[in-house]
Amino acid sequence: MLVARSVALFVVAAFFEIGGAWLVWQGVREHRGWAWIAAGVVALGLYGFVATLQPEADFGRILAAYGGIFVAGSLAWGWVADGYRPDRFDIVGAGVCLVGMAVIMYAPRRH
């Protein structure tokens, strides 16, 4: 159950971080204005809050593991939101990152 909760929190955090960055990008690079930028800043703040809800207590481990979710999530976001189609190297790279995330976060450890 802890793994499922942790993965769900990673996915929610990715939604806020990637979505927030995308909103800022749209506001600045696509000239959509300050409302988009402000919404992005709020979403990025929510990402920071969601990350603190992880059951694991080690900040460095959580952020390192989250990196795998961020990489895969960013490619998925680009595909859905911008029509960017990842190639096989993007997909393999994201898979490697997700395996790394699982090793960092969920490998059995002696405490």
Protein described:
The protein contains four helices and no strands. It has one domain. The mean pLDDT is 95. Helices cover 80% and strands 0% of the residues. The protein is mostly helical and 111 residues long. The two termini are 19 Å apart. Helix 1 crosses helix 3 and helix 3 runs antiparallel to helix 4. The longest helix has 28 residues. InterPro entries: EmrE-like (IPR037185), UPF0060 (IPR003844). Belongs to the UPF0060 family. It is found in: Cell membrane.
Give the SSE layout:
Blueprint: H1 2-29, H2 34-51, H3 59-82, H4 88-106
The share of residues in extended strands comes to under 5%
* Rounded radius of gyration (Å): 15 Å
Number of strands: 0
Q: What's the shape? A: flat
Biggest β-sheet strands, sense, barrel: none
Question: Termini, distance in Å?
Answer: 19 Å
Parts with pLDDT < 50 across at least 5 consecutive residues: none
| Secondary structure category | mainly alpha
Percent of residues in helices comes to: over 70%
Count of helical stretches: 4
- Averaged pLDDT: 95
What order do the SSEs take from the amino end to the carboxyl end, as H and E?
HHHH
Total separate domains: 1
Transmembrane segments: 7-27, 33-50, 62-79, 91-108
Organism: Actinacidiphila acidipaludis
Main location: membrane
Keywords: Cell membrane, Membrane, Transmembrane, Transmembrane helix
